[in-house]
Write a structure and sequence with these properties.
With 145 residues, this protein is an alpha+beta fold. It is 21% helix and 39% strand. The longest helix is centred in the N-terminal third of the chain and has 20 residues. It is globular. The N and C termini lie far apart (43 Å). 30% of the residues are buried.
Length: 145
């Protein structure tokens, strides 16, 4: 590996860590048939934070996630570009109801993932967590930061 590639990788990791460190962290609660589940989420509110998302991140634990807050409800589009960890992407309406879930996304994929229905919030968690916790469309998010 060339010195330039190593320097680039170090730069990207540093930028990713810096961006993540600047986001506020909150607790989000989802109520499903299996009970209430808490996630510690980094909140992506600005366009820059939403664009960065979880790219380059490998440090998520089962109860971690990222909550994307959009200025208005609408169709939301995601991809897994530069994202090394498979995720469940949970699309949430402005009424805090889970609308759809893209489960077990493919790391590094540039395929567009659509909410298919309007959503104002999007929760990304480790792949398989939604099924493991029984989270499905129609469930309610109790607390959005």
């Amino acid at each position: 590996m060339t010195v330039l590639r190593i320097a680039f990788i170090i730069f990207v990791l540093g930028v990713t860590s810096t961006l993540a460190a600047g986001m506020r962290t909150e607790t989000l609660e989802v109520r499903s048939a299996n009970g209430t589940h808490e996630f510690r989420v980094e909140v992506a509110e600005t366009a820059a934070e939403r664009a960065q998302g979880l790219m380059g991140r490998t440090d998520l634990t089962p109860d971690d996630g990222m909550l994307f807050i959009f200025p208005q409800s609408g169709l939301q589009y995601f991809w897994m570009r530069n994202t090394p960890t498979s995720l469940d992407i949970i699309f949430i309406g402005s009424d805090y109801i889970v609308r759809s879930i893209a489960a077990n996304t493919v790391p590094y994929s540039e395929e567009v993932i659509s909410s298919e229905v309007p959503a104002k919030y999007v929760l990304e968690v480790l792949a398989g967590r939604a099924a493991e916790l029984g989270i499905k469309p129609g469930d309610r998010v109790i607390r959005i930061p």
